[in-house]
Amino acid sequence: MQPSRQNRNQLRDAWRIAGAYWRSEEKWSAWGLLVAIVLLSLSNVYVSVRINEWNKSFYNALQAFDRDEVIRQLLVFCALALIAATISVNALFLNQMLQIRWRRWLTRRYVSDWLADRKYYRFWFTSTTDNPDQRIAEDIQQFVAYVMNLSVGLLSSSVLLVSFLFILWGLSGPLDISLGQWGSFSIPAYLVWAALLSAWIATWLTMKIGRPLVRLNFARQHFEADFRFGLAHLRENAESIAVYGGEAAEYKIFKNRFRKVIENFWEIMKQQRRLSWFTTGYAQLAVVIPLVVVSPRYFAKQIGLGGLMQVANAFAYVHNALSFIINAYADIANWLAVTERLSSFEERLHETRRTSRARREIATCSNGGGVTTDNLDLDLPNGTPLLRGVTFTVDDGSSLLVTGPAGAGKSVLLRAIAGIWPFGHGQVTLSSHRRLFVPQLPYSPLGTLADALLYPFSDSNPVSPDRMAAVLREVGLGCLVGELDSENWSQRLSQAEQQQLAFARILLAKPEVVFLDDATSALDDLSEARLYGLLRAGSWRPTIVSASHKGSLFNFHDQVLDISAFYPQSEAPLESPTALVV
Fold it and tell me: Most buried of 191, 325, 530, 536, CB within 10 angstroms?
């Protein structure tokens, strides 16, 4: 049976995903482990052949009532069983070692690719791929496990098939079929053809019945990930939901998402029931099929009981090897679904990279200090013009406040200057030294409070605990001095406290350029004045670019830029002298 075009594409995708590891810097250790696993699998096949020969000797001894020979054969079997167990245990250990090394390499590759060029951020503008975190955390693990288990299983089945086909061919003998007056004909090695024909028919029916499981398992991963994300979202926003009293609304969201999980699982259950009816029935028949097809030779007294059991055992091995797809089809369906999810994620990563490079018309240059924009045009993700011809200069150590009505594009302008907004064109020139962007809702990384204070420059910015404590007191968070080593601190902070913490991070990092996007929106005027005063008085004299509609910030900046002058529909000239107020 020829695989469908979709299956061929999925196999190519699987090879592309898997092949990168086998050509990587870990290829020698990977190939070494694989060779060891293959050798152990082949050794297991050899033990199976020896056990097949043991069947003949053992059952012949039983038929002859030879007690001594029966005991000797039992001892032989114990030795073979011990060898088989030793091989299986070590093969499993090496298999799992290769899996975890492979998963580690793939995970690092996908995570680094996801983080590179800020694709994790651009994803939300250029991609429809759902739950990339789940694809990295779960799909990679399943992909590696399925590839190893299915490939080793296929290899073992193939070697078993070849080995026992030769054995079965030699033991089978011909089947003479009488056609009455038309004579008779003989089928040489008829047991081989019986095994091949029955397994082929069963495999075709299994794939026919089970094909919908690939689509259903793909959807299952999507619905399960959406439901888990909703639960995590509730935990991360517990305070806001509690203040709103949004429990009923959240429950409705969970119920709708979980309903999709249940409906999908019911479809999988129904499809698996159809498949199980066939595979389970076939497995039961597979027990008696060898005895039925071999029995004519036994009743014709062409073979004894030992020969019968040896032929039946060889037939069963051939039959099981040919039935590999039948027995493993549920895993194959899951593997194809996981492969499709990983492949689509990888394609979206490449597409995001191509799109960002093709669209990267905002040129960023470096200089000794300060910030300059030259004829900067900004668009929304759908291509709608947002701002046109934004031009200004902030000297090194000076400050600029970008102001304008809500939704005017202040945050977009800061993101474009910081290099994370890809929609537009023009030129930005800014300091090549350390820069720090502070959004309205500050980010709290995982780890201790000390880790958060040094984020994202912890590796290059060693700071003593005493200095951290002093800065916390300066920004008004002296109550957190005793929490530096605590990992359960972020959920207890209000938005105002989080914004104070963000300023503490600035004072410790001492960046040459600071972008503040409504970074004091939750603070009172006194706290706001203290924090901006700390920045302006900083010995390293940072360049500050703020975005806010609050009039209280005018006194803390050397220049004010009203971006209303740069609206596309504005009649003012693009480099209007009224746009920049000193």
Answer: 191
Interatomic CA distance for residues 160 and 412, integer angstroms? 64
pLDDT value at position 573? Answer: 41
CATH number, domain containing residue 38: 1.20.1560.10
* Cα torsion angle, 466, 507, 439, 131, sign: negative
What single DSSP character describes residue 569?
A: T
Same domain for 342 and 416?
Answer: no
Is the pLDDT higher at 6 or at 573? 6
Do 295 and 152 share a structural domain?
yes
pLDDT for the residue numbered 507: 92
Same domain, 292 and 400: no
How far is residue 570's CA from residue 572's CA, in Å, rounded to a whole number?
5
Q: How many domains does the chain have?
A: 2
Kindly report the CA angle at 153 between 148 and 158, in degrees rounded to 5? 130
Q: Are residues 324 and 237 in the same domain?
A: yes
369 & 458 share domain: yes
Using the 3D structure, point to which of 330, 357, 384 is the last residue of a domain.
Answer: 357
Segment 169-186, tens digit of pLDDT: 776 666 666 566 665 666
pLDDT digits (tens, 9 = 90+) for 155-164: 877 777 777 7
CA distance 62 to 70: 7
Span between the terminal Cα atoms of the chain, in Å = 78
Give the pLDDT confidence of 532-564 residue by residue, as tens digits.
999 988 888 889 999 988 888 888 899 999 888
DSSP lists the bridge partners of residue 543 as 513
Higher pLDDT, 3 or 257: 257
Nearest to 480 by CA among 456, 500, 507, 455: 500
The dihedral sign for the CA sequence 495, 496, 497, 500: positive
| More confident site: 462 or 510 | 510
Total Cβ atoms within 10 A of residue 553: 22
pLDDT of residue 36: 93
Query: Of 357, 385, 418, which closes a domain?
Result: 357
Question: Do the Cβ atoms of 1 and 204 come closer than 8 Å?
Answer: yes
Q: Tokens 């023009």 belong to which residue?
A: 426
User: Domain containing 530: what range?
Assistant: 362-581
Q: Do 523 and 500 touch, CB atoms closer than 8 A?
A: yes
Q: Which of 323, 38, 320, 330 is nearest to 155 (CA)?
A: 38
3-state secondary structure 337-369: HHHHHHHHHHHHHHHHHHHHHHHCEEEEEEECC
| pLDDT mean over 575-582 | 47
Residue whose C-alpha is closest to residue 149's, from 141, 161, 160, 137: 141
Instruction: Kindly state the tokens that stand for 39.
Output: 């050798």
Q: Determine the length of the chain.
A: 582
**In sequence order, what are the beta bridge partners of 561?**
402, 580
For residues 322 and 376, the answer to whether their CB atoms sit within 8 Å is: no
Structure token digits, residue 150? 């299915």
Instruction: Identify the residue with better confidence: 465 or 245.
Output: 465
Query: In the predicted model, what is the mean pLDDT of residues 518-540?
Result: 89
